[in-house]
């Protein structure tokens, strides 16, 4: 299965890519929840736009990507809010006429409010992962990104000590987004 997924990514990456030097793109997307826990078991949830992306082409091999994410969940009359702001560097690994394969790394900030009177958590993270961008036309691209990383929580719940966690794979496994370049 793992080899098949890698082969599929490499095949898509060989289809073709655009040079992003001096180009700016903006887009929206979503990070799907795989399962939403409920009394009836896990349910697959529908995608909701929760991601805003800007892509700035610095040179043929580097694009900067500020990302803002907002997630609002309501479970058992308790609303939780997550805000996340990240700045990623996209380093071109493989590029062709229509498709770019990127390594991604950066720095981020997150704020999580669990609701119900619980204390808000603050944290910093160092995300890393990969991204695949396929141009549908000269001005539109479809993107798939997967990030893992290190997260430092500076204000944990219950007045506990600060801690660091390592995520290999996200709670939300992928981000899908559409970017418009002008």
Task: Please describe what this structure looks like.
By secondary structure, this protein is mostly beta strands. It has a single domain, classed as Porin, CATH 2.40.160. The chain is elongated and about 50 Å long. The chain is built from 1 helix and 9 strands. An 8-stranded antiparallel beta barrel has the order 1-2-3-4-5-6-7-9.
Keywords:
182 residues, mainly beta, Porin, 8-stranded antiparallel β-barrel, 7% helix, elongated
CATH architecture: Beta Barrel
The average pLDDT score comes to 77
Helix-and-strand structural type: mainly beta
Any idea what the shape is?
elongated
Query: Based on DSSP secondary structure assignment, what is the total number of beta strands?
Result: 9
CATH topology: Porin
Number of helices: 1
What is the name of the CATH class? Mainly Beta
Low-confidence stretches: 11-17, 35-43
Beta fraction: over 45%
| Main sheet strand line-up | 1-2-3-4-5-6-7-9
Radius of gyration: 18 Å
* Order of secondary-structure elements: HEEEEEEEEE
How far is the first residue's CA from the last residue's CA?
38 Å
Number of domains: 1
Helix content: under 10%
Please summarize the sheet with the most strands: 8 strands, antiparallel, barrel
């Amino acid at each position: 299965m793992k080899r098949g997924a890698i082969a599929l990514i490499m095949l898509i990456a060989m289809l073709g890519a655009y040079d992003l030097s001096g180009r700016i793109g903006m887009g929206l997307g979503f990070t799907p929840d795989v399962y939403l826990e409920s009394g009836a078991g896990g349910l697959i949830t529908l995608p909701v736009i929760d991601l805003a992306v800007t892509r700035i082409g610095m040179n043929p091999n580097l694009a900067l990507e500020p990302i803002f994410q907002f997630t609002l969940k309501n479970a058992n009359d308790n609303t939780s809010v997550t805000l996340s702001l990240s700045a990623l560097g996209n380093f071109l690994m493989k590029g062709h006429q229509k498709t770019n394969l990127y390594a991604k790394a950066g720095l981020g900030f997150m704020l999580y409010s669990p609701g119900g009177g619980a204390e808000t958590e603050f944290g910093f993270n160092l995300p890393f992962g990969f991204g695949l961008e396929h141009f549908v036309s000269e001005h539109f691209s479809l993107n798939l990104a997967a990030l893992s990383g290190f997260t430092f929580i500076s204000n944990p719940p219950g007045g506990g000590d600060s801690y660091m966690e390592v995520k290999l794979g996200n709670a939300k496994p992928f981000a899908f987004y559409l970017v418009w370049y002008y």
